[in-house]
Fold:
Amino acid sequence: MDASPTKFLTPDRADHKVAAGNNLSRQWAAVQDAAAAVAMLAGMPAEKPSQKMRNFPALIRDVDGWQLDLARNQVSDMAAMMQPGLAALLATKARGQNGTSAALTLWHEYVAARDALLALLPESGAMGPRRSA
Structure:
């Protein structure tokens, strides 16, 4: 009988990793929905999401270490930026005021943050991300 220790994750740690990934996916989807609403309020046409944008949560989970931590923090920061910004824009619209310039400003902030976040993803060729054994 082999008494060497296994290197499997303990159930608690495995569950935590799955929950963190699900949380990232939910936050990313919420940020994308908020961005679509901001674009509409800014009078911009709907943006077609790129493959990197659609698959971001799955692709970033393949990255480990500081890049994954930075991505999680950045998505949380983006959600914290978009939530009150969108609420303020909706309140402005409800009062019958023009919030187009504010919506454009929030949109540009979102695009800059999103592009910085997508830059954390590893480059992938036509066959997808590079994988090594």
